[in-house]
Write a structure and sequence with these properties.
This protein is mainly alpha-helical. The chain is built from 13 helices and no strands. 79% of the residues lie in helices and 0% in strands.
Length: 273
């Protein structure tokens, strides 16, 4: 009798494909179909309007800035949690997951209360002429807060599984700390870093609840694309909302493709070395 290596593979695969079709493929197909119902001229007029382009600019630039900040800060935080033992380490480790558990609207209200001119941090920064709330800087801070765990949680397990003998061998050959990190540790972390960066950037692009309170939502200045889509939905202009959302969908697929290509190159380099 023929025996399957994985019993129940057909059933589990069928359930998985059904779930993915209903939860992921069907909504995306409905979005594309709704946007495609517009003619090419109308579609281009909507997605290239000055207000839409301004929202793309605000969203992409703040998302990039937040992702770059999280790349360095998240790597440093994961490094500290894995390589050092200090008082309150478990508390810090647990607080990394706070953005996952905290409703984004609550995070947005809390950040707004802290960074307004009469808030705890905002009052201090205002003395130096720095305004955070209702500016692109506030949007970036909200994005940093909600997307930081993606980088920390993707890098942390890889750091924990690194073979210490590799670093010891590099030290015995006279390598400096920076050379060991750059030539030994960083290549092994690159696939995880790329995965964390892509997840962080995608979360920043689609973030809504944590941003609308601190952004000020001024068209052409601090209005993000997700809010513009929400406004079009409130106006019952579903085709315009779908058209603008399709731009974010295309950006997400483009980011996914670039990330997978970079990860494949990084893995080939790691396997060769």
């Amino acid at each position: 009798m023929r025996r399957n290596v994985l019993p129940g593979l057909r059933l589990s695969l069928g359930v998985t494909l059904l779930y993915v079709s209903l939860i992921v493929v069907l909504p995306l197909a409905a979005l594309v179909f709704k946007a495609a119902s517009l003619g090419p001229t109308d579609y281009w007029q909507i997605v290239s309007s000055s207000r839409a382009v301004a929202s793309y600019r605000v969203t992409v630039f703040t998302a990039l800035a937040a992702t770059v900040f999280n790349l360095f800060f998240g790597l440093a935080l994961a490094w500290a949690l894995v390589r050092y033992r200090f008082p309150g380490r478990r508390i810090v480790d647990a607080m990394v997951d706070l953005p996952f558990a905290l409703p984004t609207a609550v995070a947005g209200i809390s950040l707004t209360a802290l960074f307004t001119t009469n808030g705890f941090f905002g009052s201090i920064l205002s003395n130096f002429g720095v305004k955070v709330a209702y500016t692109p800087l506030g949007i970036m801070i909200a994005m940093c807060f909600t997307s930081l765990p993606f980088i920390v949680r993707t890098v942390q397990p890889v750091l924990e599984d690194l073979d210490p003998s590799l670093e010891e061998a590099a030290q015995s050959l006279g390598g400096s700390d920076w050379a060991i990190f750059r030539k030994v540790i960083l290549p092994l972390l690159t696939p995880a870093l790329l995965a964390g960066v892509s997840l962080s950037f995608a979360r920043c692009l689609g973030e809504f609840g944590a941003i609308i309170f601190i952004a000020g939502n001024q068209p052409m200045s601090t209005e993000i694309t997700a809010l513009l889509i929400f406004i079009r939905l409130e106006e019952y202009d579903y085709q315009a909302a779908a058209a603008i959302a399709s731009v974010l969908l295309f950006a997400a697929f483009l980011m996914l493709g670039i990330t997978n290509w970079l990860q494949a190159r990084a893995l080939r380099y790691t396997l060769r070395t």
